[in-house]
Amino acid sequence: MYRLRRMSVEYQKSRASQGSLLSHLSWLRWALLTLVLLALALLPQVADPYTIALVYTMFIYVALAQSWNLVGGYTGLISLGHAAFFGLGAYTTAILMTWANVDFYPSILASGLVASLFAVIISFPIFRFRGIYFAIGTLVLSEALRIWMINWSLTGGAQGINLPIANTPDPISFYYVGFALAIIATGVLVLVLHSKPGFGLRAIRDNEDAAQNMGVNTFMVKLTAFAISACIAGLAGGIYAAYLGTIEPYSIFSVDWTITAINTVIIGGMGTLIGPIIGTIFTTALSEGLKNYQTIHLIITGVILILVIRFLPAGIWGQLRNWLRLPGSTAREARKV
Amino acid sequence: MMKQTRLFQLIMVGLGLMMLTLLPACGGGASSGSSSNAPKQIVIGASIPETGALAAFGSYAKWGYSAAVADVNKSGGLFLSKYNVKVPVKLILYDDQSQPDQVTANTQRLVLSDKVNALLGSATPPLVIPGAVVAERNHIPLVAGMTPIRAFLGANPHWTYAWDIFFDEFDMTQQQFLTMNTVQSNHKVALFTDNEQDGVVMGQLWTQNAPKFGYQIAYHASFPVGTTDYGDLIRRAQASGAQIVIAQMETPDAITLWRQMQTLNYRPAAAFIEKGAEPVQWWNALKMAAQGTMVAGYWYPTLPYPGASTLRQRFEKDTGQTYSQHIADTYTAAQVLMDAIVKAGSLDAQAINTAIGQTNKTYVVGPVDFAKGPAGHTSPLPSFMLQWQDGQTQIVYPQNKATARFIYPLPPWSAV
Amino acid sequence: MTSSTLLAGAISGLLLGGLYAVTALGLSMVFGVMRLVNIVHGELLILAAYLDFTISGALGIDPLLTALLLIPVMFLIGYPIQRWLLNPLMHQGMEPPLLVTFGLSIIAQNLMLLIWKADSRAITTGYSDVGLQLFGVRVPLLYLVAFVLAFVLIGGIQFLLSHSYIGKAIRAASQDARTAQVMGINPEAVYALTYAIGAATAALGGTLIGMSFSFVPTSGLTWLLKGFVVVVLGGMGSIVGMLGGGLILGVAEGVGAAITGTGYRDMIGLLIFLAVLVIRPRGLFGRSRE
After folding, report:
1. B256 contacts in C (CB within 8 Å)?
2. Which residue of C has its CA nearest to A263?
3. What is the pLDDT of residues C213-260, one digit of tens each?
4. Does ipTM surpass 0.95 in this model?
5. pLDDT, tens digit (0-9, with 9 covering 90-100), for B110-119
6. What is the DSSP string of A231-254?
7. Which of C92, C104, C105 sits opposite A2 (nearest CB)?
8. How many CB atoms lie within 10 A of CB B240?
9. What's the CA dihedral at A192, A194, A198, A202 to 10 degrees?
10. Does B20 touch chain A (CB under 8 A)?
11. Distance, in angstroms, between B26 CA and closest chain A CA?
């Protein structure tokens, strides 16, 4: 992952030419993808409510993970404050549905917008912080927002907001909404990465100054990525708030959401499309297996995170990809491994 | 290149097939169709704060719920008329660590995975409400015993599946002034309320009630739960000259506030520490520094309700701890729920829910009748005033119920 | 809100600033020498508080004395973290070590949760509730103790850095690791030592936190963020500047909380942090090191 930073720009360019959408996916991969999607679409017809709720939660986590992946994995901006976008999305939906009687779907769209707007506004000061200061800055900002929301009586303060049951979809509809979000999140990533700003993203990740010298408008590219990432996180937060039925600032703005996003992306494989999905499956399986031992589950996740960073920096999927010399992996890195 | 693609294809196929086979296997846990045979057990679940800031209340809930279920199981369980047989009750308790989002997760698990037939509530509005929300959405009846009524209704004025047995804040927020009216003071009050439901609701009510009883709110401090530094607030209360302190906060926060008041030498003549001073942990942490502090009460072992004094003895024998009034409302909540199941005669959620609404009986905590309370889903308990004296709570108001002399005023800190 | 409440806030805050400086010391050292943001620093403080709580409670010793006992304990906890876990990642840039400390933070929080549960704790002694009059304002004795300790400790560390061989080795390695290596200094050992010293100072910082406030396993984040503010106000890497940073934060919080209300107290520092970084990314007192 960090060895990638040393890749030369020419190598990036040559890989980029392979990167057109269709050549990435052979007909078999398309077929398999369709099969998996079909299975997931039909799941609610055969599974029990608990499994449906579980897979729905995984969709939300995948969306959150892909959102972090976009800035952290592909642009090199380590955000420790993603909980802010998630929480803002949650509150937007809660406020609109409870006080303005807005329907569910417009509310969550507004959630995505509000989160993006926040991202755009804070970009101006926060992009001045480079490298590590950016990470700390996002953490500080997220916590400051959390404290603000705990105290702001206008939005309910510590009591939070209770959403009306009336306008809320049923659990199966939530499943499909979450499903759609997870697909959109991954799809958006695919689209962005194959677009012109997408190459700029990776150039920035590898060496921001060099990218700037080459004519990449680093500020706009970072802003776009940040805004899109925030939008997805906001959508996830909005949907989640409606699903929970009641939110309060201590937990919905908690750094735990950022931790979940980072864990799933890094363990699964930063800077890959499938990595966050694999990471989510992995951490959810672990969580379910240890559901009577939540604390131990988190300790183990932390240990695995450290082991991955130390010994398997490409993550599960990234490493798998390298070993199998799959397209998208970096042959140089594969040889080094 | 060819070998790579082949290997890749094999793996993808394998993964895809695996996922396909796993999914129905997950779904295979679907409940087997309802049988005409009697259920093997009745499952009642609750998320309670066994750890965290509200752990004291969780311990009372654990005991109250478990004791009620144990009593029922002693005679073989609950009689379900639909099957003409007694079915034992299984109680599942999960720790929510005093975190609202954990309550939601636990309650979801109870409903979806453990498939409970009915639920019991957690403790205090921030924890009870999320559980009630899940119950409401899944149409599972929930009886709560530890959340003030107005805060409960504030979250949803029209609960259909959630029920509450506790005091009404309208009544409870008068007790402090009524108690003070029996003695002399400068009638100036300093309010310390946290920004959770109870703090907000009671803060508003105290502000409204004070002038009606001839008191003045000289200072009102509002702060988030978990505040560790009350210095600034205490100084301002001191500056306002208030001789009476009324607080609504969680126990750890209340202990911190009280200690810092000692450090800054602010000693009111009377102190009502609502919620915070309820459990024995308050006394254990402060010892004689807590002597004379007051807290509103709604149950006492000498009250003329069935099994009141034996309940206290049983708790103290079981746990070796000083009792709390919460053992009565949690025990009662569980009993009310189980009585409703018997009345319904089956495990149909709707029937149980309707039966709960028809409750009209005197339990160990007092008379329970949901028709009497606001919104038809609450059953108010009467309020009176307790005072900590030598490690025990005594009734000090109203005087005709008093079990000890009212200590007033509090001696200066130097005398503690 | 009167001028006397503002004054009280300022004085109480000034003393509290000493405590803030002590708790941020480890963070500052590690950042100054290795440019490492030690996310688990907050948890090290809270761990020390828990250890002090348990040990002084079990043995009946004064908590401050127990803190002295904990100094080598925390040193031994910190040393392997840097030596074996973080050192191998130091050349990979700033993110990998940050993320590893992030992972350590998750592990530490949950370990403490497992061992000590989620209940709120506080270290109490005969003198923890004592207050005294200072310039017409009543302040907790503990704040004064922490204030004095801050000067002693920071003065001590500064002396160590400027006058001892170890100190010089540390400064050399932090300024230019390559050259230091050529001169016979092992940067990796220096890093491990620095981290361990940072963890050792957490013994004292954590104990002071535990005695002045209550804490739970998740309290670490708040103290980490306060540490950030202190470090950035004092200039990244300047130990003495950090003392100034702590005092400024304390006063700002004290006065700010008197104006806006106690709920926003923690936010004041965070906003100051952001403002300072936007205006002067080097911090207020610091030397240009980037």
Report:
1. 122, 213-214
2. C103
3. 889 999 999 999 999 999 988 877 678 888 999 999 999 999 988 888
4. no
5. 999 999 999 9
6. HHHHHHHHHHHHHHSEE-HHHHT-
7. C92
8. 15
9. 130
10. yes
11. 6
